[in-house]
Design brief:
single chain; mainly beta; elongated
Length: 255
């Protein structure tokens, strides 16, 4: 099977807080491709393929260095932003190429789904340092690779109850808007999420219900540099951490 998609996104933001302006504009072209092939052998099934993602964008920003606030910033309503301002325009290119493989293995009342994804990220832009006078633009490019394993299993405990558990690692490339050497940093790396979940599914001839709980631990997030005097092109650093926990309940009736 093959799936191809392409799209264009455009956004613009303008604010005026006292004497400190904010103006951002982003235009991005994105394209994605998935090629997959599957093989079935009795009750077992295997799939392998490759995912591809490409983003080419034009970014511009001027005004406050700290506004609008980012997640993790200490923002107090009514307090004016810092007077420091900047201006930048940059054209980043981000690509993700990821071959993967997974299987569906059945043994009695058990079902196992092991998988492995190899994420390759390519990041480039036409500016690695803030603009200074008539200094020509100097760009950068780099490539990184990561292993992202994941697995899940289900147990048909009874004819009406299925228990499940899953865990895995996910990766995400830095945001193109954060690669500015003035407002962000060209050195940002990929963020990582470690995800785990457990679930219970109740099956009845009239309806199907599911209760699931999940936990997610995040690291490598782009956050404001805590150094009061950050280095050149290091307004953001990939040292942020986060967590998310939750429970979901669903009930579905098929007419």
């Amino acid at each position: 099977t093959a799936l191809l998609w392409v799209g264009r996104d455009h956004s613009r933001l303008g604010q005026q807080l006292g004497l400190v302006p904010v103006a951002t504009e982003q235009t991005s072209w994105r394209a994605g491709l998935r090629l997959a092939r599957s093989l079935s052998a009795g009750v077992q099934r295997f799939e392998w393929g490759i995912d591809g993602l490409l983003e080419v964008s034009a970014q511009s920003r001027q005004g406050s260095l700290t506004n609008p606030p980012r997640e993790g910033d200490l923002a107090v309503f009514g307090v004016p932003p810092a007077a420091a301002t900047g201006q930048d325009s940059w054209h980043p290119v981000l690509a993700n190429l990821a071959p993967y493989v997974f299987g569906e293995l059945r043994w009695g009342r058990w079902e196992f789904r092991p998988g492995l994804r190899v994420d390759g990220f390519f990041v480039s832009s036409d500016r690695i340092l803030p603009p200074t006078g008539n200094t020509p633009r100097v760009g950068f490019s780099r490539a990184d690779g990561y292993l992202s394993p994941r697995a899940s299993m289900n147990l048909a405990a009874t004819s009406w109850l299925i228990l499940g558990a899953s865990a895995g690692i996910q990766r995400q490339a830095p945001d193109a808007a954060d690669l500015s050497p003035v407002f962000g940093s060209p050195w940002l790396g990929a963020a990582r999420a470690r995800v785990g979940a457990v679930s219970a599914t109740f099956v009845h001839r009239l309806a199907t219900g599911e209760v699931s709980a999940f936990a997610r631990r995040l690291d490598g997030l782009a956050v404001r540099n805590p150094d009061p005097w950050p280095g050149l092109a290091h307004s953001l650093v990939s040292k942020g951490r986060g967590r998310a926990n939750g429970v979901s309940v669903s009930l579905r009736h098929d007419c």
